[in-house]
Structure formats: structure tokens, C-alpha cells
């Protein structure tokens, strides 16, 4: 993606900034870190806005054969015993299903439940920081963790231990020592995972070694199901009521493994398959198992995981017989994205899939794609959400295995990346596209480390990640933008890449995320380093170099050095007028920043002239309701306020706030900035009660979203105290 395509202004009273378009991808938050499933509901969205805590996954079937362990673990949710509890066993044995059932029961009793997707340890650590903020940690405390002045685990656990009756789940924690403290093993119980008498800590993991978990852990090892329970699972899912003896033989061949049983049952339940009985399925299984074992494979014939591979190969064979020959390729494509995390249906562009040969040519490619996904869903290979389909998920074990079958090497990887590089509509500055960037963030995170060995594909991923950084930034998700930008920068640094154009723009986004996140000194250091790199690698007169200089000038202005800010902005403006096409929006961005400086210096006549020019340009090019136009209208209203034309300022802010709430969202940082400015006008109009109510509402929202110690939160707090 071209860097210029990501260009944007981040407006508001604090000033404007311009952008043109292991840490690895693990540093990127998944749904802002507390990746709790079933997040597609309105309730889930509201919960995420309130602090990132989403509902636990919803189970679809009764959990069979695990009554004793569910009862035991649920008992510890009711009365914690001072240990953390670990469900261990091989993949597909049903660990997560048990955790879901216990969490469901705890929630039914009114206990708070937090669910952390721990397959990526870096992500899990940052999830815990989000939990700390949800539990009341201040912005200053979080920043002290980032600077090394405070221990993250100690802060989280101080907050957790101040409450009682909660449940915290770490799902798929297969690298437990990565969540230890300062390189120490998790068994020390001083890191993110600790025992507690205040609530239940429950872990699911494939790591079965007791020494890994230490004496503070109570380990519950899950083996395969008892035969009777395995048969009941087959009957439950397939809907086949007869054939008990054959069901027992099939369960034995499937190793009594819950995931394999589920896949076989789903196959039999599918109305399009021609296998209707357990005996028929057993015959197909024996034939297909023999074929698979003739090929080189890591698993031995006695490995239960081989049974899982056989069951889904049977399912894929059946889809081929139904004319869905491409379903196997589709599953391998989906497996490239983050497992267990919803993949937006809108990401799967039918015309690209058809052009790449994944979908056969013909009419209605979208309909054929939907048919294929529904077929994979009916056989239990993916899980679709919504009617029509809105999103889908892939089981981690299915995803891991399918990635190893990508032949020729990398075909599905390249296609997965290409689908993210949609050239059509995903504009980082367009509010309508912000939900898209939020939804694909975890999948970009999953793809980044897969692409590092192929420089061509990695360069494409750099462009995609760059645009995602700016999409998150414009959407007001400063922390997520920071983490993604930092992840990309560190990954590129490990590959000795520094001058790639999109990488430079992404680093600019990182600096702006730090600035808008209330950390101007860190932002300045990042941008100064970036400026030196840009000058060395692309030169002084390139757009990105000028954009970074612009942002640094804005920081000078915020620090009160108006003379330095004006001098640098004028230099940038001169270069832009000389180098860029007439009417380029970057020129108007710089002019608006100059207007900010003039306003701050009290040169209101000159500021008014600049503001009028920029506003007219933006209205003509972008329209009245574009975020950048709204930013200019705010500057106009602010000048009306400074010139004591209070009635006009009030009317203008009423319009700006209403439009901002509709276009950006009621809690977007810019909307809150404009509400704060309106409150100050109301105060000066003598409408004190309205002003106080508005300031209080803005303060509460900013404190919740940005933290008590964010500069914007403190600013409105000062206004509130002055009024009361």
C-alpha cells in the first residue's frame, strides 16, 4: 500500500499531526488483549468499550464424560483453595470445553469471568495490562510498567486480590514460562500466573510436566474419554440414534478423542453426505486412514492426532464428491489467519478467490463461497457466525495441521496476505472502515511472522500493517496502534530493514500513537530517531520526512515553544508548496497547524484568515462532515470563542458535536475534545449547570478510555474543578 494513501490529520484541541499512509507480531493486541470469544454481539461491543472484558465462549453441546472434573474445578470457582488450576492434555481432548462450562456456571452465579487467549504469550501479558486498566489501574501506573519502574504482574495481582469471587482463564497456554517474571519459570508463581484465595485461576495447556507448573498448581490431566461417554458424544452430535455397537467401534478407531468425535459426528449429521450410519463411516475411515499412513507423516499410527487428521480428510473428501473440490484449499487459506479468532467474512473477497483459482469460475462467486463455508461449518471444520455469515473461526489444531499441507509451498499464505491488501475501500481515515481495521488486527498479527522469510510478501505485509496502524490511530485506538507499530518496527529491525517507505510511515504512526496516547516525550524521541532514519534513507525532500518534521513541530507547540514551532512549520510548508501538487491536502494540514500556533500566540486576525482558507479547501474537497473538515470547523469555533462571539461559537459547537458523534462515535477522542470545548463556551455564556454536566460526562469517559492521568483527562478535570 502506498504510504500516501494512509495520510491523515489527527485533529482536536491538542493540535494536529500528519501521516501519509520476541516482539514480532506478538505485541499486537487481539481485540485489545482480553480476547474473549463471542465478541460480535452488541453486548460484547459495549463491554469492550467499557474495559475490554467480553463474554466467555459459548459451548454448543453438552460436555460428556467430564462430570467429575467439571464439578471439582467449579467447586474451586465457588471456594478458591489458594492454588491455580491447570487442565492439561493433548490438543483436541476438550480442555477448552471444560473451561467454558466452568466459566458458564460461574457467570450464572454472577461471578466476573475474564478470559485471556494465551496462545501468544506477548499478547497475554498485554491482555493482563488491559485487565489492570479495567480493574482501575491509573494511566500513570500503566506507564510506569512500560518504563520499567513498576512490575506489571504485581500491579495486576494487587488489584485482583482486592476483589473476591472472580474467575480468570488463560486458554491455550502452551509456553507457560513466557508468562513468568523476568525470565523466571511460571512455577515461581511471581509472574502473570499466580495462585489465589480470592478467585479461581484456570489454565488450559498441552504442557503436562508437573515440574513446569510447580507446587502452587493443581494439575488436572485429561485423557481420552471413556468409551461410553465417547459413544454419547457421537450420538449427540450426529443425531443418529441407532447403531450403538458400531458407534463403539468408531469411537475406538477415533481414539475416543473429543475433537475427532465431534468431526465424525458433524459429518454424519450433514444432510449432504451419503454416509448415514456409524458402520458406513467406520468403513470410510479405515480406507482413508490407510491411504494417509502410506504418506510421510510426523504422527505414528497410534497417535490419536492421526485420527483427527483422518476425520477431517474424510470430511474434505466428501465435499469434493459434492462438487466443492476447492473446499480443501479454502480451509488451508483460512488456517493462515489467527485461530479461534473471528475472521470477517468481508475479508474473503470472492472475485480475488476466483481470480486466484481457489473458487471455480462461474456466476455468483459470493454464493459459491458462502456454500463452501456453510459446508465446512456443517462438518465441524470451521465455525460460522451469523445469517448471512458475518465471521468464522478455525480450531487451532485444524489450523496448525492445514498450514503444514500448503502445497505448493506458500500458496495459501500469499493469498491470505493479498486478501488483506484490498485496494478498494479500506481507508484508514474513513470512519466507516475503522471497524474493519479493528477486526483484522489479530490476523495481521498472525500473518506477520509467517511472511518474514519471503521479502516480497513481507514488504506487502509492511504496507498492510502500516495502513492498519493509521486506521487504528484515526479510530481513536491509540494503544492498539502503538503496539502494532512497535511490533512491525521490531520485526523489521530484526531483518535489518529500515528505509522501506511504508515502514517509515508506520513508524510515524507509532510516534503519533504515543503522542495521542499522552506520552509526548516518548513520541518526540521516537520521531527524532525516525527523522534521522528518513533523512539518511529517503532524503530531506520526501513527503514522509516532511510529515515527521510537521509532527515534531506540533510537539514543540504543545511544549509552549511557539517560535520554534512556527519556524519549522513555515519551512515544511515552503517545501510542500515547492514539491507537492497544488491542492495536496498535506499543505492544508500544515497551514492548519500554523493557525494553531497563531491562535496560541494571540494573533487572532491572522489565525482567522488561515482558518478560513483551510476550512474552505476542506469543505470543497472533502465535504462538511469529513473528520478533517470537522477539525477545521472546531478551529473556527475556537476562534469565535476567543473573540467572545459566544452565541455563534455555541451554535457551531452544537453542530460539530452532533456531527462528530454520528460520524466518529460519541466516545471518539475528537468528539470528546469538541464536547470539552463546548462546555467552556457554555460556562462563559453563564450556563454553568450545563457546562458542569458536560465536563463531568467528558471526564468520566476519558478516564475510562484513556486513564486518569492522560493529559486530556487532566485537562477536563482542571476545567471541572474551576467550575465547581
UniProtKB/TrEMBL annotation:
N-terminal signal peptide: none
NB-ARC domain location is: 83-236
Among InterPro entries, the record links this protein to:
NB-ARC, NLR-like, P-loop_NTPase, TPR-like_helical_dom_sf
Name of the protein? Tetratricopeptide repeat protein
Q: Which organism is it from?
A: Sphaerisporangium aureirubrum
Organism lineage: Bacteria, Bacillati, Actinomycetota, Actinomycetes, Streptosporangiales
